[in-house]
Amino acid sequence: MGDEEEFNEYGWAEKPKHEVILSKHFYLSNCQVTRQQWQYVMGYKTYEYEGEIHLPAVNMTWKEALTFTRKMNEKFGSLLPEGYEFSLPTEAQWEYAARGGNKSLGFLYSGSNDPNEVGWCYENDANEPNIVCTKFPNELGLYDMTGNVMEWCHDWYGMYSEEDQTNPVGPASGLLRVMRGGSVINFYKDSRVSHR
After folding, report:
1. DSSP secondary structure string, 60-106?
2. Contact at 8 Å (CB) between 111 and 136?
């Protein structure tokens, strides 16, 4: 996890680059939660017009996102393999998946070194979220992990440790929760897989 590049103006947040081992299996949705899915699970809309149902859900708090996962477990938890549940990913899980997991080709963005191929960011968009899955996926078949809308992680925000870690879950407390992936209002540099 992280980035050690000298030109990186976010070095204070992304350093030190460190080894992380994820020994527990997990699944991640292949795209962002749509507004239609959000309404179905939560019972209220995050959009105004019917044509917006395939856009990503937006403007929810971390607590609302956590409530969404709880309600997903209530409605669909029995369909999951034993020992699994719906949850927000840890920051380590998110970055591992965004980098392409064990199929990673080492791209700067999730699935490419060209952000235009895989993400909607400020430089290629009109500052509005776009329909999910309209750009290329990454090596694991995951869409929109670069740009479109930022994604909540379960962790509290904290500085990285120099030590290697296994299944890290971030600090025990803090002031801010982690968001990853960048959005349509972020520049390309703010949508790299290491950006936090």
Report:
1. --HHHHHHHHHHHHHHHGGGSPTT----PPPHHHHHHHHTTGGG---
2. yes
* More confident position, 12 or 114: 114
Global pTM exceeds 0.85: yes
Check residue 50 and give its pLDDT: 74
What pLDDT, on a 0 to 100 scale, did the predictor assign at position 13?
82
Distance CA 177, CA 165 (A): 20
**Amino acid (1-letter code) at residue 53:** I
User: Distance between CA 151 and CA 144 in Å, rounded?
Assistant: 10
For 16, the token pair is 């030190």
